[in-house]
Amino acid sequence: MATFSSHQTQTHFISKLPANKPRTKPMFTRVRMSYQESAPSVAVVGVTGAVGQEFLSVLSDRDFPYRSIKMLASKRSAGKQLSFQDKAYTVEELTEDSFDGVDIALFSAGGSISKKFGPIAVEKGSIVVDNSSAFRMVENVPLVIPEVNPEAMSGIKVGMGKGALIANPNCSTIICLMAATPLHRRAKVTRMVVSTYQAASGAGAAAMEELELQTREVLEGKPPTCKIFSQQYAFNLFSHNAPVLENGYNEEEMKMVKETRKIWNDKDVRVTATCIRVPVMRAHAESVNLQFEKPLDEDTARDILKNAPGVVVIDDRASNHFPTPLEVSNKDDVAVGRIRRDVSQDGNHGLDIFVCGDQVRKGAALNAVQIAEMLL
C-alpha cells in the first residue's frame, strides 16, 4: 500500500480483529489485474491526496473491474508517476475535458473542486461519487452508506445514458451509523448523543506528519510546530478544528445532525454531537448514546450487531477489551463494543455503545468504492 509513510510507526502495532470476524477484504493481497473490456472507465480525482491514494488501494483490494482508469490531480501534481496494479500511470491535470468517456468518477479533491468539476463530469455523462461535503445536503442528491440506505441510489447505474451525482457522507457519520442503524431498524432511535474522538487522518496526511513531528519535538523539549492546527496536538486534545457556527456547534457536529436525518429519511430524529480531535494517527472513535421508541435490551442489541454487515463486535467485559483505533486501522469493518443499558433511562429504552472505524477506509475511500460497485 502506498499511503501515509507518516503512520508506519502505528501500523507496526495494529492488532488483528477477532479470528471469527476478519475484515471484509484482506489489506494486502496478491495483485489481481482488474482490466475488463466490458467494464466501466474510471477516473480518480485528487489521486495524489490521502483519500485518493486509499481509493487506489481499495479498488485493487476489491478487484474493482475497469476498462481504463485516469489519475487526475491539480496542475502541481500533473506529470507525476504512479504505479497501480503493476502498471505505471502519469497523473493528468484535472480540466473540463478530463471526463470525456468516463463512466465513474471518484472525487476526493475538496469541496471547491467538486463544486466546479462535479457538474461538468455529470454533464459529460459520468456518475460522480463525491467524497466532499459539497453536495451532501443538496436535495435529490443521494447521500449513501451502502449497508444503511442503498435504496437512496435506486435506478442509478452505469450505462443508463446520463450522468448523476452521489454523495459520500462525512466520515464520522458513516462510522456512527454503521453501528446505530441496525439497532434503529429494530427499535427506532428517537434521540442520539454522540461524542467523537477523531484522529489526525481526518485532516489529511499533513496533519498526520505534524502529529508525528510534534511528538518528537515535545519529547525532546522543543516547542511544537503548529502549522496544520493552531495549537499543540501531541499529548493534547481539543475541539474539532471545523469552523464554529452561530449556534455554538461546529460544522463537523452539524454534519452528523443533518446527514443522519437525511440518510435515515427521518426529519424528527434528535441528534446532538461533540467532536474532538485526539492525538491518534488513524481511525476515529465515537461514544454513542441511543434512546429508542421501543424497548431493546443489550443482549438483543449485541446479537443484532454481530450479524450486521460491515460490523464486528469487540465486547469482552471480563478482559476489559473493547474497540480501539489501533485495532481498526487499515480495516474495513467498523468495531462496536461497550454495549450496555443506559441506566439513566427507565427500562430498556436506552443503550450506550462505543464505535471505532478507519476514517480513511470505511469513512471515505471504501464507502465510495462500495457505492461504485452498486453502479455496475
Automatic annotation (TrEMBL):
InterPro entries: Asp_semialdehyde_DH, Asp_semialdehyde_DH_beta, NAD(P)-bd_dom_sf, Semialdehyde_DH_NAD-bd, Semialdhyde_DH_dimer_dom. Pathway: Amino-acid biosynthesis; L-methionine biosynthesis via de novo pathway; L-homoserine from L-aspartate: step 2/3; Amino-acid biosynthesis; L-threonine biosynthesis; L-threonine from L-aspartate: step 2/5. One of its GO terms (biological process) is isoleucine biosynthetic process. Residues 41-156 form the Semialdehyde dehydrogenase NAD-binding domain. Pfam families: Semialdhyde_dh, Semialdhyde_dhC. Its EC number is 1.2.1.11. SMART domains: Semialdhyde_dh. Residues 1-13 have a biased composition (Polar residues). It catalyses: L-aspartate 4-semialdehyde + phosphate + NADP(+) = 4-phospho-L-aspartate + NADPH + H(+). The keyword Oxidoreductase applies. The active site is at 171 (acyl-thioester intermediate), 284 (proton acceptor). GO terms for molecular function: aspartate-semialdehyde dehydrogenase activity; NAD binding; NADP binding; protein dimerization activity. Residues 1-21 are annotated as: Disordered. It is an enzyme of class 1 (oxidoreductase). The keyword Translocase does not apply. Keywords: Amino-acid biosynthesis, Diaminopimelate biosynthesis, Lysine biosynthesis, Methionine biosynthesis, NADP, Oxidoreductase, Threonine biosynthesis. Homodimer. Belongs to the aspartate-semialdehyde dehydrogenase family. This is aspartate-semialdehyde dehydrogenase. The lineage of its organism: Eukaryota, Viridiplantae, Streptophyta, Embryophyta, Tracheophyta.
